[in-house]
Specification:
The complex is a heterotrimer. By secondary structure, chain A is mainly beta. Helix content of chain A is about 5%, strand content about 30%. In chain C, strands 1, 2, 3, 4, 5, 6, 7, 8, 9, 10, 11, 12 and 13 form a 13-stranded parallel sheet that branches. By secondary structure, chain C is an all-beta fold. The chains are: A mainly beta, B mainly beta, C mainly beta.
Chain lengths: ~200, ~120, ~100
């Protein structure tokens, strides 16, 4: 899946995501998952691969098989033995001693950072579901129309983002329909919009 | 010089304060306070309540206390829940228990290949 | 012993403690404790030492001050001044320095 994911509920990623993820709830990056982009959420758990920053308002946890290149920032951070990380890791929000990378952190994708999800907070996720995920146009260029039209999601349940090689057969882990995520047609080049590592 | 003493453990006790360099063979457990660098062939352990202000070069490093400085470990670095660690860590693997207060730059030999999407 | 400098270890600097200190490796600088100091047979110290009692079986170059006693064991070598209420030099030990036992 290419595109940016925003929403209010929890998110479980099992496939490939190229784009930033920014949700109010928890984010789980599964063992087989690969994310190229920054991930922002409450409690972020990673067992797969991430190239990008992880910003958890509650915590960031890297499990045994996690492979992360990027910065980690959360009040509680756990890195299990066997996880591999390269980047800044901060529980206090201050830059690491003598590190110029701290300044690079914010530079990557201006359009997708600092999403004012707090402004959307008044929405109670349990109600009549309207995924706030990408209903508004995102600044990505998308030559093709979204591959997947989606019904509104129920954000209180985990939403599964599947691999882009199964565009038609959308199997969900749980009942809820997929989020509205504009997606590039397979094969289209994603715009290079973040720092290369 | 053969590593004849690589199995030994040295200890700086809880009430001990050292300002200066510590180096050589064997492992080191610090229960007190050290201002200065450590360069040992074995493991370095910073006990709860202990502190090191200086750089460490060791086989592995285990921090339950406070460490401000850079770490270069041939093996692993473990940061325990009550620890406070600031600096740059170079190791083959770093683990951090939730609860630790850290401000670290972690350098491991990790290169990701997320290349172009491909079918599995 | 609370603080042990192992045979392969080397410390250069100031060490202060409230507890006993054993040196089996190398120490250079200044060593001060309220408790006992033991310089083992393999210990090599280039420092002034201060403790409650100091026992030397290795090599010390520096002044030794003890509130109670200094014992120089067989095989021990001390070059430096000694200030202590009691001072023993074992047969086989080597000593060069001044002694002040009026404490």
């Amino acid at each position: 899946m290419r595109g940016n994911v925003r929403g209010q509920g929890d998110l479980e990623i099992q496939g490939r995501v190229e784009g930033d993820v920014n949700v109010d709830g928890d984010v789980t990056v599964g063992e087989e998952a690969a994310v190229r982009g920054n991930v922002t959420g409450a409690e972020i758990s990673v067992a797969g691969t991430v190239q990008g920053d992880l910003r958890g308002s509650e915590g960031v946890l890297l499990e045994r098989g996690a492979r992360v290149v990027g910065d980690l920032s959360a009040p509680r951070i756990g890195i299990a033995p066997g996880a591999l990380v390269r980047g800044l890791v901060r529980t206090d929000g201050e830059p690491a001693l003598g590190s110029p990378q701290a300044q690079r952190r914010a530079s990557a994708v201006p359009s997708l950072r600092a999403v004012p999800t707090s402004a959307q907070r008044p929405f109670v996720a349990k109600e009549a579901p309207r995924a706030t995920v990408s209903e508004r146009p995102l600044p990505l260029e998308r030559p093709a129309p979204p591959e997947r039209a989606a019904a509104p999601a129920q954000p209180e349940r985990p939403t599964v983002v599947e691999r882009s090689d199964q565009p038609a057969a959308r199997r969900e882990k749980e009942a809820p329909p997929p989020p509205v995520v504009p997606v590039l047609a397979k094969g289209a080049k994603a715009k290079k919009k973040r720092r290369e590592d | 010089m053969a590593a004849r003493h690589s199995n030994e453990q040295s200890v700086l006790g809880a009430s001990t304060r050292v300002t200066g360099r510590v180096g050589g063979e064997g492992s080191l457990r610090i229960e007190g306070q050290l201002k200065g660098d450590v360069q040992v062939t074995g493991d370095t352990e910073i006990a709860e309540g202990a502190s090191i202000e200086g750089n460490i070069s060791a086989e592995s490093v285990d921090v339950a206390g406070s460490l401000v400085g850079d770490v270069s470990a041939r093996g692993t670095v473990a940061v325990r829940a009550g620890a406070l660690v600031r600096g740059e860590l170079k190791a083959t693997e770093v683990s951090i228990e939730p609860g630790a207060r850290v401000s670290l730059r972690i350098e491991t030999e990790l290169e990701l290949d997320l290349g172009t999407p491909r079918r599995r | 012993m609370a603080t042990v400098i192992g045979e392969g270890l080397s410390i250069e600097g100031d060490l202060t403690s409230n507890e006993d200190v054993a040196v089996h490796g190398t120490f250079r600088g200044k060593l001060t404790t309220d408790d006992t100091v033991v310089v083992g047979a393999t210990g090599a110290v280039q420092a002034d030492i201060s403790g409650s009692s100091v026992s030397i079986a290795g090599q010390v170059t520096g002044d030794v001050t003890a509130s109670e006693r200094v014992d120089l064991q067989a095989g021990g070598r001390l070059v430096g001044d000694v200030r202590a209420g009691r001072f023993t030099i074992a047969d086989g030990a080597s000593f060069k320095g001044n002694v002040d036992m009026e404490m």
